[in-house]
Fold:
Amino acid sequence: MGKGMAADGFCCGVRSKDESQAEEKFDLIGKITEGTNVIVETSKAAATATMEKSKEGVTFIAEKTQPATDFVAEKTKPATDFVAEKTAPVTDVVVGKAKEGYSATMDATAPARAVIVEKSMEAATATMDGAKVAADFTAEKSKEAATATMDGAKVAADFTAEKSKEAAAATMEGAKVAGEWTAEMSAKAVAGATEAFEKLGDVAGFQSMFGLVDTSDEGLEKLFNDVDDDGSGEITDAEMKTMLTKIYGSAVNDDIITKMMAAADTDKNGLVDLAEFKVIMRADRVA
Ligand SMILES: [Ca+2]
Ligand SMILES: [Ca+2]
Structure:
């Protein structure tokens, strides 16, 4: 209780007007609750009764309609059976005809299918044959081309060999002619030198065999060394002959060599030394 209520005198054992009103309200709420409970209970009972009655109704209807349903079923069964009985042969016929149609189609198309297979085989065989012919043709042509190439190469090789042979023969011929010409010229030179030697006498002849030379010490030493092939410091008959053969291209007569050596070899030892060579090359020099 608040102080405000205390101010109204509610706490002093005396029922105030407000307190009486609150009690009335409380009673009223109790009555409402009670009424509501009655309504709920009554509704539940009514719903149960309705369910019960409906069940009874459905059962009743089912009971009453069953004979009718049976009657209808009984009456329609012959019709249904009749339909089934009548359609069964038709179904068999349809299936049979379909089977027959398939067989007939297979039979009818068998020749055509056989022809297609046969023609395919023929086409395949023809293709194989064509490819083989083409391959054989290519191989044949390749072989021919290879043979032609080989033949061409052989002809070219033969031609080259022939021309080489001809060129070699021509070269040999040319060399032979040149050799003969050179030999002829050498022979003439030797003959000329021999003739000059005979006319000039041994000393001047000796000089003429070497032609015009440098008669200084240096020039004669160089020439002497060229003739003295083995560098012994003395010239032998053989060394003299070798040098003159070099100069004239042909062997000089041995008689000339003997005369030249005898003319130069003043100490008569059979050899010509540098001093003897210088003397004879400078003696009474004929231009
Ligand atoms: Ca010598
Ligand atoms: Ca000598």
Remarks:
- The first strand starts at residue 234 and ends at 235.
